[in-house]
Amino acid sequence: MGWDFETDPDFQAELDWMAAFVREKVEPLDHVLDNPYDVTNPRNIRLVRPLQQQVRDRGLWACHLGPELGGKGFGQVKLALMNEILGRSKFGSVVFGCQAPDTGNAEILAHYGTPEQKDRFLKPLLENEIVSCFSITEPQGGADPTLFTTKAVETDGEWVIDGEKWFASNASCAAFFIVMAVTDPDAPRHERMSMFIIPAGTPGLEIVRDVGHVGEKVPMHAYLRFNGVRVPAGNMLGKRGQAFAVAQTRLGGGRIHHAMRTLGEARKAFEMMCERVVSRQTRDGLLAEKQTVQEKIADSWTELEQFRLLVLRTAWLIDKYQDYRMVRKDIAAVKAAMPRVLHDVASRALHLHGSLGVSHEMPFMDQIAMSYVLGLADGPTEVHKVTVARQILRDVVPSTDLFPAYHIPRLEAEARALVGEV
Ligand SMILES: Cc1cc2nc3c(=O)[nH]c(=O)nc-3n(C[C@H](O)[C@H](O)[C@H](O)COP(=O)(O)OP(=O)(O)OC[C@H]3O[C@@H](n4cnc5c(N)ncnc54)[C@H](O)[C@@H]3O)c2cc1C
After folding, report:
1. 101 lines ligand 1 (CB under 6 A)
2. Residue 249 has what pLDDT?
3. Is the Cβ atom of 74 under 6 angstroms away from ligand 1?
4. Three-class SS string for 48-113?
């Protein structure tokens, strides 16, 4: 019977190395650098590159990749455990070569890219020589992609793209953009759009402005306009009308990694909360001695552990089935549960730090803001809950009777019929 919560000792040694490395070398970068994606910034180059080299030397660079792309082919459970550690620092993923959205973009380039596209875009992306942008959301509709209107029209062997996109992360640093556009307006709803690769600097590609949110040192999400942007036919990524299939390919494993990074962040808040309550005195003792405070500690620990088990079990299911479609419900549940865990743990940590907790001198407000961001980016929580519920209810058999199948009078009658009078 395979039911095991142990990490094998060799891999645990790698995790221990990572934990110390991230704490001692990577976390400090959060306090002196601004944008992990700014790969041409001389300060980033000076401080990030040597750490990336240490990760490569240790054999832990871009571990999400399969061996065919130079990675280790680690399964999702191992990657999840690694990402839990990386979540402690904004620079964690970049230092280990596994930052979103580049990971997902690399995944679809590897899956759907032509040899030319792989050569030009995938190779430098995997080395973090460049970063990329994935842009599908539009100002008039994000959660429902069938509302997107940015269009691409085929003219003289080229595609001409017109329209607007919204909240395109890292656009200002990106060397290329993967963009979803309507190519076949009259096709069935999920076959109307195709994916395109647009190199940065292509004439007509306008960054209207970068939009920021609470917790970000610099605005990183662009409002984009496409004014007759021309790309060659060879810049289509995947087949015509396949944009939804391409987009789906990039999200499965990424959501698990994101969830574990969020757990890492929430655990950081929890550690601060614990330190605070065993340090802060009141008139009649430590905060830690108050039952209402103990309740906050117990609830936080329980929620962290519950969420961790859900994510790791989902990672284990992905490894087992090797088919994201079979784990869709579980992945959606992870995505939907993630914001609340960070929100609740960070809120308690903030509260127990009093005035210091709400100040700019502690990270809790940023963490709480991040919990709201997590409930939106990659689709709002409601949409993922709908996926969970639909998948669960799909196989539930309705009662054909006026009363439910589990109505007690019926159960009693059935029991009597089975065992006779008692
Ligand atoms: C930090 C961050 C980074 C992002 N990065 C990118 C990126 O790189 N590329 C990109 O393309 N997009 C990106 N996005 C956009 C993100 O994908 C969208 O914000 C998300 O899909 C929601 O779309 P919207 O913002 O237009 O909200 P809307 O679609 O307007 O939804 C607003 C609210 O309406 C409710 N709602 C919507 N639909 C339903 C429904 N079916 N059932 C119930 N309630 C519903 C929900 O409460 C939802 O929060 C990013 C967003 C954030 C916050």
Report:
1. yes
2. 78
3. no
4. HHHHHHHHHHHCCCCCCCCHHHCCCCCCHHHHHHHHHHHCCCCCHHHHCCCCCCHHHHHHHHHHHC
